[in-house]
Amino acid sequence: MNVALVKLSSIGDVVHALPVAGALHGALPQARLVWIVERREAAVLRGNPALSEIVPVDTRAWRRARTPLAVAETSGALVALRRHLRASRFDVAIDLQGLVKSGVVAAATRAPLRIGFTAAHCRERLSTLFTNQRVTPPPAARHIVDRYLALVEPLGARPRMVEFPLPTDGAAEARIDEFLMGAGLKPRDRLVVLNPGAGRPDKRWPIESFRALARRLADDAGASVLVIWGPNELGEARAIVGSGTPGRAILAPPTSLDELLAVLRRASVVVAADTGPLHLAAALGTRCVGLYGPTMVERNGPYGRGHRSLESPDQTMASLAIDPVLRAVVEILDGPGADQAGRGIAR
Description:
Blueprint: E1 2-6, H1 11-27, E2 32-38, E3 53-57, H2 59-64, H3 68-87, E4 92-95, H4 100-108, E5 113-117, E6 133-135, H5 144-150, H6 170-182, E7 191-195, H7 207-220, E8 224-227, H8 234-241, E9 250-251, H9 257-266, E10 269-273, H10 276-284, E11 288-292, H11 297-300, E12 308-311, H12 322-334
Parallel strand pairs: 1-2, 1-4, 2-3, 4-5, 5-6, 7-8, 7-10, 8-9, 10-11, 11-12
Helix pairs in contact: 1-5, 1-10, 6-9, 7-8, 7-12, 9-10
């Protein structure tokens, strides 16, 4: 059996869908599983033992095509993709995204069975035009991870264990160890990683709040604080670190996905909004404090045990006070299992 999984983006969403591949591989070990994903997110899937192939696409570039050359390149890429999908002779396609674009990709596989969510559970209801078996997640499936897993039940797949295999790169791990050592951080330090970025402005906690939290974590909780950042976020990260007292907060270097994973593996706690690094950290087993405003903790909170999630009283991030966030971090640092939360602990 040839099965296409269609989950294009974003990083956090791809992470949440990882258990689907494991569940299918466990139930159908002879099946050939192919994941169709955006080029930028494909690195999350590298080395995944459940997958036979990863097919990267670049719908972002396709949508930006304006010049004759770019349009020609996009047309060529679409023709090549369609040929490749047809040659793969898929029996099943599973649209995990529920968007029109993911539905179009699922239809392009020409799989006779195309599974997706019912309209009420799709982000774009028109995506149901491209599926022919539609699933309503059971009421108990409140988190998006569990909702994704409901899509494989028509194939008889039920996971014995929810797993999130993520890549490891030895060279990246060594670079991060070298950076942390150079910054004066020791393996048993209480390392709190702050991630101020988010894909949407309304999901970002104010920089002033992050800065105050960093100061109090260092002064009151005796924690080492590392501020990570992504594209176009360096200015915000520098504003949190400031030019202030050495040892209060440290600015992380630019990181690739592998280096980011290395940082998150070494953290005692990660503090972030509903965004990719938060969900990567939770998938690694690193304990998290999630900050939520416009999105729902029940659906998008850090998956697994031992995490804390704080919700804004009015769905705006500015209304999240600093004291509850500080308490949540300290409770994790001082709570059961705190001695296993330091850098370098295998998870």
